[in-house]
Amino acid sequence: MSATLKMPASRVVENAKQTSETVLSDASSAMKTAAENPKQATSDFLHTPFIRGALPFVNGGLAGMTATTVIQPVDMVKVRLQLAGEGIKTGPKPTPFGIFRDIVAAGKVADLYTGLSAGLLRQAVYTTARLGIFDTLMKSLSATAEQKGQKIGFKERAGAGLTAGGLAAMLGNPADLALIRMQSDGLKPAAQRANYTSVIDALTRISKNEGVLRLWAGAYPTVVRAMALNFGQLAFFSEAKSQLKDTSLSPRTQTLAASAVAGFFASFFSLPFDFVKTRLQKQTRAPDGSLPYKGMLDCFAKVTKDEGLLRFYRGFGTYYVRIAPHAMVTLIVADFLGFITK
């Protein structure tokens, strides 16, 4: 029989009373300390091991979702531009302004935000993972380099960016596919449109009608695109900030300049893969069960043959306007959140 069962009932009650009083006293003391010095209480909370590990992921997700909300109309135009003239080398060449005008004329301004729920879900998964993984890898690499009396260089930054991008892209592919389906739905004849009501509706119906694995359609180019984009964005941002650290520019100006450099390289390296990703994720099976493209390499080959090599860089200006500001807003917000939660 345990000592507790042998103890008199009055003693058990007394011990329970003392324990509850101690807990209440500690809670009261913690609340009093927080009331007297809220900054210290917040700092103590932010520096707990769990919160320190989670913050890079939380900050990354919030930064990405903020940027997506700002850039979503440009992304809508970019997708429509990439899907226009599919399989045709010659013919009319749509412009970003023409597509923007057509979308607004066919419906309403809110149509430019079609797929926003999918875009936010994608950022909640993809950017949370990529920035969190990148930051975690960079801290680990920095700590290892310091132990050896060295500094991390561009090679380490590039490796961290490629790794973070690839892993995050695999996690975020279903939301990315839902986004492309929702944005391209308006290009179909009215009778053939799926008319998805939300990202959950899109994911559910695609899984039910085409199979769960279809949610990872285009995953290969998505991963390659993400690796190229993150190589351009995260590696060059980190490198540019390192190079600008000893200049006379203010920290805010350094962040802005570094994010602008990162945005350009991210756009340049990733656009061809983004183009193929869009084509693969948009395609649906014909009545005979066939698909226009068998995979990434087949898409590259067919577009090169039927539409020309330059088609991969069609809409570079629109893509840059979509990627560069998104990268800049994401990196600036993430940098700011990282600063206030130090």
TrEMBL record:
GO biological process: one example: transmembrane transport
GO CC terms, sorted: mitochondrial inner membrane
Highest taxon, organism lineage: Eukaryota
Pfam families to which the protein is assigned, alphabetical: Mito_carr (PF00153)
UniProt keyword annotations, A-Z: Membrane, Mitochondrion, Mitochondrion inner membrane, Repeat, Transmembrane, Transmembrane helix, Transport
Region (Disordered): 1-33
Localization in the cell: Mitochondrion inner membrane
Membrane-crossing segments per the record: 319-340
Comp. bias (Polar residues): 16-31
Family named by the database record: Belongs to the mitochondrial carrier (TC 2.A.29) family.
Protein name from the UniProt record: Mitochondrial dicarboxylate transporter
